[in-house]
Specification:
single chain; 16 helices; 13 strands; 6-stranded mixed β-sheet; 44% helix; alpha/beta
């Protein structure tokens, strides 16, 4: 993605849905934004065209003077705008027609259609935000839970970028001290190696602390895919309905009722969960049910976690054992359902985390949720209350920074010449700079911003 200085871009900045949405926004950014707005927007009376004002009026065709829409115009002139360029927004009526016509008029007046994420890219390149804040914008838009949105907001407020820049600054200061001793050894006092080692250790510990949030970030952003599997008529659909507090799945006493995979999305303690209710797994001659069984096996193989559901009134059966052999290598929880009908005789189950519940009585759901988060080794996430959580790209850079810092420590401990210190120090500085964007290639920027929606 290339940025031409002064080029004006335009995009629809809101979702366009027929017969839905009361407002549609068309956004311009660049040197010609104000000029284009003045050609298209008629503001009656003596309204002042100055920055950070909202004007009322009509969008008209510049030649025919045909009124396109009654609208508001928002002016944000440089440098007090998101992109630090002149930004103009037409706030039109929602729907498809008005915003599309306004977009076409802007293009006809010389604006170029924006690429995905190009407004945020300009904000980054013009120093308005750093790369962690830019990524947080995309994460905020994509957030599936309140916890994920709070993490994204923290990143947008600089709570990740600021400490990373501080750590990089410390490494730069250490590098300057070391290189000064290399170049001017006779004119400066000896290097305080103990102090340098302490600084390196502090930086390394902080890098590791931030890196430790990567797993939490992955869970909050993407959640878990969970497949409910088991024999027919063990209560899988009843479990989905009780858990989601809906009637997504048909429940009958007839085995084989569920013929396809049914999905339901829940948010449990801030973690998005995609629950898959699958067809009962058994040998069958019914062609449609056979397809459902095959899809159940695929769902179990692709899931992050399998809930192998057992009928407590029947105990552990040969059919249960056969299904267990198919899924035992997956992260697994045994769900013993229908405990309200269970025999008082003790039943031996495989050695796996086990939850007892009654879906029809809505009993045991909370215990199941706790077991899921605990098994995923994420049980501490809810209580951790971490303000930031790094994404995969940031985690990769932090890992390289951590390795480089460890190698610097080893170099110091082995009393190698100062020239060797600088090699890995520069590696750590490079890796930390990639996180905030102080050291980043165009290909990395393309990869990051191409995932944004158009208009952001």
């Amino acid at each position: 993605m290339s940025l031409v200085q002064g080029e004006t871009i335009v995009a629809i900045a809101t979702a366009v849905i027929p017969q839905q949405g009361s407002v549609g926004i068309v956004r311009l950014s660049g040197a010609q934004s104000l000029a284009i707005a003045k050609k298209l927007f008629h503001s009656p009376g003596k309204q002042e065209w100055s920055t950070h004002r909202i004007l009322y009026g009509y969008i008209r065709h510049p030649t025919t003077k045909q009124v396109i829409d009654e609208a508001l115009l928002l002016l944000m002139l440089q440098p007090r705008s998101f992109t630090r360029e002149d930004v103009v927004e037409f706030h039109c009526h929602g729907g498809i027609i008005a915003v599309q016509l306004v977009l076409q008029l802007c293009v006809a007046q010389g604006a170029r259609l924006a690429q995905p994420g190009e407004f945020s890219l300009r904000a980054f390149l013009n120093g308005r935000i750093d790369l962690t804040q830019a990524e947080s914008i995309a994460e905020l838009v994509a957030a599936q839970s309140t916890a994920a949105s709070q993490i994204a907001l923290a990143g947008l407020q600089g709570k990740l970028g600021t400490p990373i820049r501080d750590l990089r600054s410390t490494c730069l200061n250490i590098l300057a001290e070391v290189e000064a001793r290399i170049d001017f050894a006779d004119d400066l006092p000896p290097l305080n190696e103990a102090e340098i080692e302490e600084q390196l250790q502090n930086v390394l510990l902080q890098v590791r602390d931030i890196l430790a949030t990567a797993e939490q970030g992955e869970l909050l952003r993407n959640g878990l895919k969970i497949a409910i599997v088991g024999c027919p008529n063990v209560g899988k659909s009843s479990l989905l309905n009780a858990w989601s507090k809906s009637d997504r799945a048909i429940v009958t006493d007839l085995p084989g009722t569920t013929r396809d995979v049914i999905e339901s999305t829940l948010v449990v303690r801030g973690i998005p969960l995609k629950i898959l209710d699958t067809a009962g797994i058994r040998d069958t001659v019914d062609t449609v049910e056979k397809l459902g069984v095959e899809r159940s096996r695929h769902a179990a193989a692709a899931a992050d976690l399998v809930l192998l559901t057992i009928d407590a009134s029947l105990g552990w059966t040969t059919a249960d054992s056969e299904i267990y052999q198919q899924v035992k290598n997956r992260p697994l929880i045994l769900v013993i359902n229908k405990v309200d009908l269970a025999s008082p005789q003790p039943v031996l189950y495989p050695d796996a985390p086990t939850v007892y519940l009654s879906a029809v009585n809505n009993h045991g759901i909370e215990a199941l949720e706790t077991a899921i988060l605990t098994l995923a080794n994420k049980g501490a996430i809810v209580a951790a209350n971490s303000e930031v959580a790094v994404n995969q790209r940031q985690a990769s850079a932090l890992t390289r920074a951590s390795v480089a810092l460890e190698q610097v420590q080893e170099t110091v401990a082995n009393q190698l010449p100062l020239d060797f210190w600088t090699i890995d120090l520069r590696g750590a500085i490079q890796a930390l700079g990639e996180i905030t964007g102080e050291e980043v290639t165009e290909s990395v920027l393309d990869r990051i911003f191409s995932r944004f929606c158009i208009g952001k």
